[in-house]
Amino acid sequence: MTPQSEDFSAWYNELVFKAELVDRWPVRGTMVIRPYGYRIWELLQADIDRRIKETGHVNAYFPLLIPESYLQREAEHVEGFSPELAVVTHAGGKELEEPLIVRPTSETVIGEMMAKWISSHRDLPMLLNQWANVVRWELRPRMFLRTTEFLWQEGHTAHVDEADAMRETLASLDIYVKVAREIAAMPVVDGEKTPGERFPGAVRTYTVEGMMRDGRALQSGTSHYLGTNFAKAFNIQYTAENDEQEYCHTTSWGMSARMIGGVIMTHGDDKGLVLPPLLAPYQVVIVPIGRGDQADQVLPPARELAGRLNRAGIRTHVDARTQLSPGFKFNDWELRGVPIRLELGPRDLADGSVLMSTRLGEGKSPVSLDSAPARLKFELTAFQNLLLQRATDFRDSHTATVNSWEEFVEAVRTGWALAFHCGQQECEDDIKAATSATPRAIPTEGAPEEGVCVRCNMPSAYGKRLIFGRAY
Known about the structure:
By secondary structure, this protein is an alpha+beta fold. 37% of the residues lie in helices and 26% in strands. It is built from 14 helices and 23 strands. Helix 9 (293-311) links the parallel strand 15 (284-288) and strand 16 (316-318).
């Protein structure tokens, strides 16, 4: 493949196909997610779904098609999405009386149903989640990162007041932080978006941002406090304890299959994928060594070992492809990012051991067949921790605290800049035009600090430094 240092974008585009994560579909900007790639999504989805349900949310499903008039009710929302909308004008051989929008997100359709289902304060909070596909007509599609159709979850909740809705907004953000760090081994930074970066129609937007190995940022999940904007548009009201009619305060939040792209670009190298064990379709692959009678001798013990590892909770696969050489298999599984590879040949079998290689390790080490389940569990945990620490070290070494424009320009060329900003949209736009960098987040962590804008020298509007970076 093209080396990362030569052309990171080309490296990524080649890898997602060579590792058989995706394939192309004739409709512009769409992709077929192949079984290996979809298994990564299933593992990620299962963990997110578990965490969402543990916090009291329930899953539902809402229609794909939304009447155009529904979107028009919330003007700012429509304006923000209008360039990306796919519109259905004909169906059943006839022109429709009203065009239908293929959902870009579901605030409008879910808001309509919340208005029907909520009548009293006793109905609140209403905590809904949906696993779905959405369509946004991307100008510059890229597999997993920005595709015309993509998979995600979108949470939608309604509350009695701002305080309760804000607790939900931040609790949902915390789910994304934990998923990214604990499952994807991505050391994301969480914080609030500036007004210019907010979700259309939101009062406040919060984000988790990860740094990829080319120094760019990837928005990996967002959580929005919508105030009463959508409640007023869709008449989502409840009778309060004092018998007064009040508008609900709503939230929405989502994490998508773009996280798979984030995992690829956070951990991958010139040899291919490097998958965190908790997201690896196969955590261990066993490669039997030998031909003819030797293969017949080794294959049954390899399958017996795989059975023991699988029963111990380790996702294990035996590569029994007889038409391929061991060397080809080694390279193939390295490309696919398998955390641990085991080689089992006649000599190893006679010694009661197997040879272990880790995806980022050098050399091979013997592992006793008897102790293999316990040893491999230890190694997988260590590898998961290694990836998080490696990515954290990379992010920190490519993040600079800057006070001058010259320092800022240099920092965002290869990573992130921590800088003061005046909060003016014109200045934000000027920075983007000059450097392609945008404010990724007003970080949650970090002590209050005052200073002057790195671009225009006006006083800082946020009381702390913002994270700026070029982004996907």
